[in-house]
Design a protein that fits this description.
Layout: H1 3-31, H2 39-68, H3 76-109, H4 121-146, E1 147-150, E2 153-156, H5 160-198, H6 208-244, H7 252-276, H8 285-289, E3 300-305, E4 308-313
Antiparallel strand pairs: 1-2, 3-4
Helix pairs in contact: 1-2, 1-7, 2-3, 2-7, 3-4, 3-5, 5-6, 6-7
GO cellular component, one term: plasma membrane
Organism: Paramuricea clavata
GO molecular function, one term: G protein-coupled receptor activity
């Protein structure tokens, strides 16, 4: 292993430890708050933490061993068809969950009068099956079909044209499309929350705690969009450059370093939620971790919108 590979391997394992601890902690904390807020919101956060955890566990250890034995693929023909598609599925599930979180938050803040039926068991099952099955259909299956194990190596068997088309396709469904939806939903939500703040005298019930929660939501939305956009961009750029340069090895280093940003995003997601969601932060787990627990309870307040007055959860 050269200097760059040693650096990326070391950083990857540091990120691995942080990500596992952070996402496991988030999963435990969410169990204590399932009945205290929006069921769909809690379940989506749980799914995001699970997908991030699955992604780093299925990626970092395998990538480390693979690079030790490079250019040979040490896991055999069966895992050649499974490892990369599984990693892609987990990563896309996390991305699609983030998109769903943004859409759910948009409807709760911008259109609170609409019945989203988010508490129905059937709706929850369909939502989460879709979040895991769509990545399989859209990316994992085509990738598994294209992968070939020959002469001890595992590589995609696309022609140059199909390889370029598939790379652009993945960039659209993994990054450009989701980022557009996330930015639009969160942008609308931010505008609505700012409007609530500016015209709070028109609301029936309002207090400093609710306004602070609003501001936390605004900061969290901006942070989520920024982290996703920044940390996933190097990886998408690296794959496009590497593909269109016909596998020029000079760009391999860029790809290896860019993976650190993708892994880091999985480690940062639980941190973002813990920082900006005081209602969910650690809960009963806080006693074990010696963190002060927020004893505030779920409250309801009524907001005035263009379509009338509606109930809105303050812990959106």
């Amino acid at each position: 292993m050269d200097t760059v590979q040693i650096f990326t391997a070391t950083m990857s394992w540091i990120i691995f430890v942080i990500s596992v601890i952070g996402n496991v902690t988030l999963i435990i904390a969410l169990k204590h708050h399932f009945s205290r807020s929006s069921r769909l919101y809690i379940c989506l956060m749980f799914n995001l933490a699970t997908a991030d955890l699955v992604f780093v566990v299925s990626s970092i250890p395998f990538n480390f061993v693979e690079r030790l034995f490079a250019p040979r693929f040490p896991f055999g023909p069966v895992l050649c068809k499974l490892v990369m598609p599984f990693q892609t599925m987990a990563a896309m599930t996390a991305i699609f969950t983030l998109v769903t979180l943004s859409c759910q938050r948009y409807f709760m803040i911008v259109r609170p009068t609409e019945d989203t039926r988010e508490g129905q068991k059937v709706s929850l099952i369909i939502t989460f099956l879709s979040l895991w099955l769509l990545p399989v259909i859209l990316a994992a299956v085509p990738l598994a079909i294209a992968l070939r194990y020959e002469d001890g190596k595992c590589a995609e068997s696309w022609s140059d044209v199909y390889s370029q088309c598939f790379t652009v396709y993945l960039t659209m469904i993994q990054y450009v499309g989701p980022l557009g939806v996330i930015a639009w939903c969160n942008g609308r939500a931010v505008v609505e929350l700012r409007r609530h703040d500016l015209y709070r005298e028109n609301y029936a019930i309002i207090n400093a705690t609710i306004l602070e929660r609003h501001n936390n939501v605004v900061r969290m939305l901006i942070c989520i969009v920024a982290v996703f956009a920044i940390f996933w961009f190097p990886g998408q750029l690296a794959w496009i450059v590497l593909t269109f340069s016909h596998g020029d090895e000079r760009w391999t280093t860029l790809l290896e370093v860019s993976e650190l940003f993708v892994f880091a995003n999985s480690a940062l997601n639980p941190l973002i939620f813990f920082i900006y969601n005081g209602e969910y932060s650690f809960g009963k787990l806080g006693y074990l971790l010696r963190f002060k627990q927020n004893n505030s309870h779920l409250t309801r307040f009524r907001v005035r919108s263009g379509s009338g007055t509606a109930d809105m959860l303050s812990t959106v």
